Amino acid sequence: MRTGLRIELRRSSALWAGLLLVVSATTMLLLLTTSYAKWPGNSTSAVLALREPLGYVWALVVGLAVLQGMRDSRARVEELFATTSRPGWVRLGTLASAVAGVVAAATALLCVGVVGKVVAGGGFVSAGFVPLMLTVVLALAASVVLGLAVGRLLPHPLAVPVALVATFTVATMAVQAQDVRSPDGVIPPLALLVPVFAPPNSDLVTTSTSVDVGQIVWFAGLGVTALLLLVARSWRGGLVALVPAGLALALAVSILPSRLSDVLVTDSIGGRLVCDGQVCVSQVHEAGLPTAAEVGRDVLAKLSVLPGAPTEVREDTSAMAHYAVPRRSGDVVYLSSQGHASVLGMPAEQMRRELLAGAGVPSCTEPNSTDSRESAVRYLTAAYFTGQLTALASDPYVWGSSSMRAAIEEDWRAFRSKSPSEQLGRVAKAREMLLTCQDPERIRDVLVAP
Question: What is the pTM of this model?
């Protein structure tokens, strides 16, 4: 067996499949990564980020496996091997072990590589990436064995291109089905039965335990079916081979969630809060706690003049921060860390302005959308506490527009013309309306109306 395995490693496409996987996945990850990418900050999010380029890599590896599975047919030695005393399942099992083993090892190496990138960059490392790595390794190994079985059972010249196109199409359709923009959005469970996933740009989010368990069950059953199909010698054996995959499919569908808020959850380890007095941030961003604590205490002191003033500053670690209106609370000023303009990554002065904008309350607009009226409210309230109207790093579009900036400066002059007590009362009223998102279009009028 050991000798046969060495021969298969040398003569089969096993090593080429592993090399193709590592090179193509690394290249696609670099191409898809932007300067705003958050995955290098957490080992769990780094391994989850590998799911995005798998749509391409998965198809290439499966296509290569199908080509390898056609080897006996292309060499016209099927009848010759059938006459040997050595059982066919031993030889085919050796081939499957070689190819799937190398692909599994290459996938694990790829996962370890991105974790190494996190370590080198001083990011947060925890055991949270292990289930994600196990899922990906199992998925690609099972897919490779299935490709070998398809190549052996259907040794047609069109088998390889059809397998490539079919796998890529399934991956594309799954990603499209996963593309929902609401916490209550529904993802069909079948769309989660692929190793491909496009996670949000966050270092605090991972897949839920239900997703991990469901996928592991499915890919394990698929791997057993693929191996049985590979060694099947009759159509009856082929039908029996489908049973494990059928059972695994039924069980996985019953386990997999459908709502987006149940598919993506906060990393239970990296999202745990660490505090310095009244200021708390996630373990992933613990390095930013000293600055956040200093700024947070100053912000709470400035906001203390308001009725019902907040008493805590806390990072918003919600997994749905990318899809829902920002969290708000009368007692807590939330630090936003999951958007492109991460508050925790800002210099102290910019962070202070961001936390004071809205009198410690975020806007009522959904992520990736802009309301000029609410932007004006954020600029005016921040300026009230700092004494100076200046740019907010989270809303550069409004400040960069000459017409919008002129309008905000005019509003600032109107607001400053009021008495100090009236200014305080208007800011308090605006904060109250922001907390309930009550008639958000009128909040600006509350600040600047005659």
Answer: 0.88
